[in-house]
Amino acid sequence: MKMIDDIAKRTGTWLSGTGPMNDIVISSRIRLARNLAGFPFLTKSDTGQRNEIYRLLYDRVMHTDLGCRILFVDIEEAPELDRQVLVERHLISRQHAEGEGSRGVAVSDKETLALMVNEEDHLRIQVLGSGFRLEQLWERIDKLDDILQQQLDFAFHEQYGFLTACPTNVGTGIRVSVMLHLPALKLAGELEKVSRAAKNMRLAVRGLHGEGTEATGDFYQISNQTTLGKSEKDIIAEFCSIVIPKIVDYERMARQALLKDRPTALDDKIWRAYGTLENARTLSTEETLYLLSHLRMGIHLGRLETIPLQTINDLFIKAQPAHLQKIRGMRLDGEERSVFRADYIRQRLAESN
Amino acid sequence: MKMIDDIAKRTGTWLSGTGPMNDIVISSRIRLARNLAGFPFLTKSDTGQRNEIYRLLYDRVMHTDLGCRILFVDIEEAPELDRQVLVERHLISRQHAEGEGSRGVAVSDKETLALMVNEEDHLRIQVLGSGFRLEQLWERIDKLDDILQQQLDFAFHEQYGFLTACPTNVGTGIRVSVMLHLPALKLAGELEKVSRAAKNMRLAVRGLHGEGTEATGDFYQISNQTTLGKSEKDIIAEFCSIVIPKIVDYERMARQALLKDRPTALDDKIWRAYGTLENARTLSTEETLYLLSHLRMGIHLGRLETIPLQTINDLFIKAQPAHLQKIRGMRLDGEERSVFRADYIRQRLAESN
User: Fold this and answer.
1) Which parts of chain A sit beneath pLDDT 70?
2) Higher model confidence: residue B200 or residue A89?
3) Which of A130, A324, B111, B329 sits between 20 and 30 A of A230, alpha carbons compared?
């Protein structure tokens, strides 16, 4: 699809690596789970009901002014590679890409808003932003939710709040998550501590692609696990004033400690990563993310001044399998991808130097 | 010692990486073990006898025309770092460096001849050359042996031949050894076969620094194990017409197979090695030898054309611990050496590019 080809070639606003605390916070995200009153949850819907929900939501979403230009992708009809591009950009979930039946996603042209239709819930509203900006995102999604509620009748229970397909989302239906880059805590072997503290606060710590994925490239997603019994504002306030500033402080201290106590080991790590990316002839996604991760830290610590941060942020996205195939303009098997990935990165680094 | 400082700064003739089959054969070496008649072996000598042997041999060696300029190093008096430099250049053995009592070595100015006094035997005559040139070395050492026999009375038994401190050397007292660079056989996992075949021919396969050392940087020393019951010429003929050409053929085939079947994997290995050497901030001796080993293969296969082979050959020697300290002009502990090694290599590669 031409539209997805274009998306795959740009960095995307929320991937730009800018915004508050961008040395450590890659991006912020809030999503709300909503279901239509008068329709069964998707697990209980037949094909006819599912199609009806899809048509209704498509219609209302596309004919409501959400304050930005919206592109709608029919996920059921979309080629696998296009779906994979959307997953790699965090605009849809893996389950949504791999699911069955009528389903889709509405994406704003800046990719800071995505509305998944017929994922686990009838509608999932998601806003994304670069850096640490949960309060701003909350304002936006709260407004969007209000606008949509004028067009749609969401299933709501006086006592429980918004009703959702999975009980963990009942109540506010909110999930707040922040993607962090924690290479120094990883090097210092102190991630376990952070992870334990987060779990004690009933927060989930996950990898780059959310639930069930490993932390690749030292990226960690921190998100709330419960949505019942706390207001949206309380959940966000906790993230903004306690959780994230604390982890960011830990990571900054770990980076300063590396700089002070082990500058050679730090530079060695950064420059070896650079040397490998600049010279390798085949690179896996995972190795690439780790190497880029070290460069990213190097740039933020002022140890690597020859490459623009923007190039690194862009490569984080472009080095992923579906993006690479879009750039190359053809399907590539695993081995071909690794070779093209190495070629592409070598070329980009040479250009930026 | 000024003399050793000078030695440490040059590459040395036999280390030049030239000569026949130099894509695979680093160097050839022949040594003869000799003892003086009328003196006990060193294991049975007291200090007085040991000193007497030392003085006698020093005197004769220094006053005999061996056809080249000779430098004599009193190993007992030499600082540890100087002894270590001589070990790293294969001019003396580790035992000789670490031993006790009066002992020394006479080295020709081109480092292609070394006479160890009071190592395991009273005298060990050693000739070295770059590439595969055993026949030429045999001519030279045979002549030297004749010249020395006119000056010295060597212990010789009608039936057994030359008598030596260790029974494995009795007879001809000859050890023929060839240093091979076998990275492709290593990558192809076929070294075990070569090693087994060599053992069946009663040859020893050892690492870079001879007996009891591991094969670092894909370097292997092949040498004869027995010296009794075969003439010197037979031993050398076997090396020249069977053993070495066969292993060289194997390695060349393995390299061609890599080029044909796995060119990307090959280039990946070579270029990653280059990227690491060009960027690392700390490098151990062992890692350095492996990385240089890959560059050496890359140059010989025409995959890496920016660096002169001479630089790589020189770095093989200079990257060693004692050489580095000589270049730096001061003692360095292990960590300091690794940092200086990385700095030095980075600078050399930048200069050669």
Assistant:
1) 1, 208-215, 227-228
2) A89
3) A130
Which residues in B lie closer than 8 A to residue A264 (C-beta atoms)?
Answer: 281-282, 339
B182 contacts B198 by C-beta, under 8 angstroms: no
Note whether residue A185 is domain-resident: no
What is residue A288's predicted lDDT score, i.e. its pLDDT?
96
Distances (CA, A) of A27 to A12, A112, A133, A137: 12, 11, 8, 11
pLDDT at B172: 85
**Residues A175, A271: one domain?**
no
- C-alpha gyration radius of chain B: 21
Instruction: Please tell me the distance in Å from B265's CA to the nearest CA on chain A.
Output: 7
Are both B165 and B299 inside the same structural domain?
Answer: no
H runs (alpha helix) in chain A? 2-9, 47-62, 80-88, 94-98, 134-151, 183-187, 191-200, 232-238, 244-261, 263-279, 285-300, 309-318, 321-328, 334-352
Higher pLDDT, B169 or B343: B343
Same domain, A142 and A276: no
The total number of structural domains in chain A stands at 2
Q: Is residue A250 part of a domain?
A: no
Q: For residue B208, what pLDDT is reported? A: 63
Find the CB nearest A279 among B271, B280, B342.
B271
Residue A246 lies in a domain: no
A28 within some domain: yes
Residues 264-293 of A with CB under 8 A from B: 264-265, 267-268, 271-272, 274-282
Mark whether A176 and A285 lie in a shared domain. Answer: no
Same domain, A29 and A158: yes
Q: What is the sign, positive or negative, of the torsion defined by CA atoms of B154, B158, B164, B169? A: positive
pTM recorded for the entire structure: 0.89
CATH number for the domain spanning A145: value is: 3.30.590.10
Q: Which of B122, B146, B180 is the last residue of a domain?
A: B180
Task: Give the C-alpha distances (Å, rounded to integers) separating B325 from B4, B5, B339, B345.
Answer: 12, 10, 12, 14
Separation of alpha carbons B311 and B349, rounded Å: 8
Q: State the DSSP H helix or E strand holding residue A204, giving kind and residue range, or none if neither.
A: strand A203-206
Contact B171, B160 (CB under 8 A): yes
Lowest model confidence (mean pLDDT) among A15-29, A243-257, B213-227, B256-270:
B213-227
Q: Which domain holds residue A136?
A: 2-180
pLDDT digits (tens, 9 = 90+) for B140-153: 999 999 999 999 99
Report residue B102 as tokens. 């009066």
B279 to A265: CB separation less than 8 angstroms, yes or no? no
Name the closest residue on chain B to residue A263, using Cα atoms. B281
Of A137, A156, A180, the last residue of a domain is: A180
Cβ atoms of A6 and A304 within 8 Å: the answer is: no
